[in-house]
Amino acid sequence: MWCWRNWAFIIAAALAVCGAAAADVTPGVLPAGEAISAHREQPRSFNPQNLYEYIDGAADLFLSYGFKELTAAAYDLGEQHSITVDVYDMASPINAFGVFMSERPEQTPGLAIGAQGYFADGLLAFWKGAHYVKVSAQESDEAAARTLATATAEQLSGTTALPVEFRRLPVKSRVPGSERYVRKDALGHKALTNVISADYSVTKVMVTVHVADLLNPAQAKQAWEKLRDFEKRAGSGFAAMKGIGESGFAVRDSGYGEMAVARAGRFVVIGMSEKAGRAAVKESVKGTVAGLKAHSG
Fold it and tell me: Taking the complete model, does pTM exceed 0.85, yes or no?
């Protein structure tokens, strides 16, 4: 009798675990198979601890952008055709946008699905709110992939507008679609984190502006000092920059061209250009620093 009770306990525990695993799949983020007249396989869920089991070498990229959960399922179209839908919950819109942009091919035609959707080489991808969605299909199944992607986008909450962090960047002269976000190790510097960027057309040449949010003034000062010390050694024409932010410098970087860097509260603002003169780069930084006072949230 003692053995049967123990076996009953073990079986009950195993069933509880299985039930918990099924409950872990976030409901409502994947459309039913009826969306494309296909059979949908049982959705699967992955967390930060086991994401590598699904995407292996690519897991580190998603984890670096604050990945929270993946819900995935395959849709059987018959005749050895299937479509896979992966919905990545990245915990925040800025993280979803960042990882999406890091994987998006350059010069890809856009689709009106979610935010900045595209279809290339059998992959339809977009982001919306805190989610990044990847729909994988054969090239011949693009129409079904679009239908399924549209149905997925309609079920996801959140907006397709740029994340609110981009309000910190000037709008005037900004090149549409040039916005980017790097969460860690921006510009090859470990001290630069939470960096939003965009390109600007200034006097017919391009200037790129980066704003790093270091979360507090002390960390911003430390990051600024590390960048200053590096450029003093590696750059040329180093000069202090007064009247812009709390402290600043200008330099000719060996890889990025003319660079101006200013510290303002918890932010480090960096302007750079391979073709623009130093004065134009400094003006871009000055305008950005001024705008941060209104959009520092």
Answer: yes
